[in-house]
Q: What sequence folds into this?
C-alpha cells in the first residue's frame, strides 16, 4: 500500500514539473470555469460592481485613484445611472462607498425616482479600517463572497472580484459566479420623449420611455399623405385644406381651375393660338368660333347661296354667296328690244333688265295692198324689221 502511494506521488510530481506531462495533467484535471475578460472604462466598471453588490471591487477602484463621480458620455455618474434605472442594490452599494448624493446630475433627477430606490433611508458609508484584508490593500475592509459578486473559485489575476488598468481602461476578470458580464446599459433619461406630441407631430409607434408612473412618447413630424409643401405647375391649393408636419404647413393640391379652357375644340371652334392652361398633367386650350373667311350668315340682295357650301362658326352655320342667277335678264337690251318697265333683277352689284321686242307703233311687217314702204323708214322689233 505504501509503495503504491509513493508511486502515484512520484508520477504526479513528474507531471507537474515536466511541461509535456503538465499539459496532459491539466487535461486530466476536472475542468474549471473559463475566465472571461471584458474591457471597460472605470466609469462602466463602477456601475457593473455596484449593480452586483461587489463592494470589494468598488473599493479597489477607489483605492486605485478613480473618482466615484466619474461621468459617462451622457453626463451621468454611476450613482445617477443607478437611480435612473431604479436599481436599489446598485444605489445602496455606491452610497456605502461614499458616492455623492448631491452631485449635479443627482439634483436633476426627480424625487419620485429617488423615493423608489430609498435614498432617504440608505445605510451610511462604510468606515474603512487600516487593516489589510484579502484585497491586500490597506484601508479597504474585507468583503464577503456575496459582496464581491464573484464565486470563490473564479480564476482572476489580482484577487477575487479585482480590476486592473489595461491600456487606459479597466480589465474586469469574471468567472462563472454571480458577477456576470459587464454592461454599461442605457440611462433612462427619456431625453427627446414627451408626454404628448405637439400639433404637427405624431407618436413613433412602439417607441416609449417610462418616467416614474408616466409613459412618455417619441414624436416625429406628422405623416401628411397627399399633402405637399407647394403645388406643381397645373395644380392649385385646395382652400382651407392643410396639414401640419413638424413646423411646416403642407397643402392639398388639386388640378388648377381652367375656366373657359377645354381639352379640345368642338366643331365650329378653333384654338386660340398661344392661349393654354395647365390642368394637372393636361394642357387645355382656349377655343373661339372658327374663322370662316368668305362665308356669311346670309346672302345680301343680288346674291344667292352656293348650294352645299357652308362653314360652321361656333353655333352658327355660315354660307357661301354668289351673284344671283337672273335667267332672262340682261344688263342691256339688244337692238330691236326694249326694257320691260319695272322688271329688273339684281345679280351681285348689277341690276339686270328684262327685254322685249321694241314697240314699233305705225310700223308693219309688210304693207297691205295699195300701200308701199316708205324708203329708209324702218323699225326693228326683236329680230323683225318693220316698215312704215
A:
Amino acid at each position: 500500500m505504501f509503495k503504491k502511494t509513493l508511486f502515484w506521488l512520484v508520477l504526479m510530481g513528474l507531471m507537474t514539473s515536466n511541461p509535456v506531462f503538465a499539459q496532459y495533467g491539466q487535461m486530466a484535471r476536472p475542468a474549471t470555469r473559463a475566465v472571461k475578460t471584458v474591457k471597460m472604462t472605470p466609469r462602466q466598471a463602477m456601475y457593473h460592481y455596484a449593480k452586483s453588490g461587489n463592494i470589494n471591487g468598488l473599493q479597489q477602484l477607489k483605492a486605485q485613484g478613480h473618482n466615484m463621480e466619474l461621468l459617462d458620455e451622457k453626463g451621468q455618474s454611476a450613482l445617477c445611472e443607478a437611480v435612473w434605472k431604479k436599481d436599489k442594490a446598485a444605489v445602496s452599494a455606491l452610497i456605502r462607498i461614499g458616492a455623492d448624493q448631491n452631485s449635479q446630475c443627482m439634483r436633476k433627477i426627480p424625487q419620485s425616482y429617488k423615493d423608489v430606490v430609498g435614498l432617504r433611508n440608505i445605510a451610511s458609508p462604510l468606515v474603512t479600517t487600516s487593516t489589510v484584508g484579502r484585497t491586500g490593500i490597506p484601508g479597504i475592509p474585507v468583503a464577503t463572497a456575496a459582496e464581491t459578486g464573484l464565486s470563490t473559485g473564479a480564476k482572476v489575476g489580482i484577487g477575487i472580484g479585482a480590476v486592473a488598468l489595461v491600456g487606459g481602461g479597466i480589465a474586469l476578470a469574471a468567472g462563472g459566479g454571480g458577477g456576470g458580464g459587464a454592461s454599461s446599459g442605457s440611462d433612462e433619461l427619456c431625453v427627446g420623449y414627451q408626454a404628448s406630441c405637439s400639433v404637427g407631430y405624431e407618436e413613433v409607434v412602439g417607441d416609449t420611455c417610462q418616467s416614474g408612473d408616466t409613459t412618455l412618447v417619441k414624436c416625429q413630424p406628422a405623416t401628411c399623405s397627399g399633402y405637399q409643401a407647394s403645388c406643381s405647375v397645373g395644380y392649385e391649393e385646395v382652400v382651407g385644406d392643410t396639414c401640419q408636419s413638424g413646423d411646416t404647413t403642407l397643402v392639398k393640391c388639386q388640378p388648377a381651375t381652367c375656366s373657359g379652357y377645354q381639352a379640345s375644340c368642338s366643331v365650329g371652334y378653333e384654338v386660340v393660338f398661344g392661349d393654354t392652361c395647365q390642368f394637372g398633367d393636361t394642357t387645355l386650350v382656349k377655343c373661339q368660333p372658327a374663322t370662316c373667311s368668305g362665308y356669311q350668315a346670309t346672302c345680301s340682295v343680288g346674291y344667292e347661296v352656293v348650294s352645299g357650301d357652308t362653314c360652321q362658326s361656333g353655333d352658327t352655320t355660315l354660307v357661301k354667296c354668289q351673284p344671283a342667277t337672273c335667267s332672262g335678264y340682261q344688263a342691256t337690251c339688244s337692238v330691236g328690244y326694249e326694257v320691260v318697265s319695272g322688271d329688273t333683277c339684281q345679280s351681285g352689284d348689277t341690276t339686270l333688265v328684262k327685254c322685249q321686242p321694241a314697240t314699233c307703233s305705225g310700223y308693219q311687217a309688210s304693207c297691205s295692198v295699195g300701200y308701199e314702204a316708205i324708203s329708209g323708214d324702218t323699225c326693228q322689233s326683236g329680230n323683225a324689221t318693220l316698215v312704215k
